[in-house]
Amino acid sequence: MQTLFSTDGVPQRDRFRLWRDICEDRLVPMAQQRLEGGAFQAVIEGCQVGSLGFTKFSLQNLHAATTSQMVRHPDNKTDRLFMSLVLTGSVKALQNDKSAVSTTGDFSIRDTNAPWTIEHSGYSEVLAIEIPRDKIESIIGPARHFAGLIVGRHLPVAALARSFLCDLARTADQLEPHSAERMAAVGVDLIAASIAERMAMESPKSLRGSLIVQRAKSYISANFSDPRIGPAEVASAAGVSLRQLQMLFRENGDNIAAWIWQRRLEMASRRLSDPGCSHLSLGELAFESGFLDQAHFSRRFRAHFGLSPRDYRHAALTRQA
To answer: How many CB atoms lie within 10 A of CB 36?
Structure first.
């Protein structure tokens, strides 16, 4: 990771102001306040891996918060979520009436559409990961259901996600663009699986629908390459009736059949953009993405992306050359 800011060598009178400016650039507009006097010391490091932005903050004794007014600020990244992974120390946080203390190895999600408060008492190191909102919410539903929940370090999938993401940040500068995007997609899947693992521990009935939808979407993600998979098969795998699953999808603003085709088209677009798949014919790529024939694939792809698969591949590979 590249060092973006360090208080070393910076006059004490300028340190906190520069820190605030870079924090807001990397995260969102927020109000920050030091908890005690003395010389302010901090470091910010960062890197980008595909669609994921990584920022490591090393700091101590700080209170930060966003307000309803800041949430509406034009510079607020409402199309993003932030995963906050504690590497060292502890962080107290509040969002959506969920108040908890994260310690080393825990993580939680900050929703940029709602106010939040965090407090670093003593020294802490935190890895903040900027994630496109749609990539998470398309899997497990609206962030309001899980933002603020502490995903504990003891949970098996969370431990796997933490290890992978830390390794990914360390090797960011060694990855080719197409490999970085692949690894970012794996990271998003692990984060979503970790959140789902944590949500399954909650008892309120209101979460049951979200968990059913997440189970259905996980089944789709694992099986969309099978052209026989449709809404009825997904409902059966999720353990509910087709009518009930359709209703739950509608509550999240989704449609089951459309969601299946969206996953197939996304996979096809990734493979068309991947130099490692350039040897595949369009027919092979269509079949492996869950389409019965190339003509159907081409019609669907053009309607969604505005280009034929052949033209899309040519444009994507030309940009990477």
So the answer is: 8
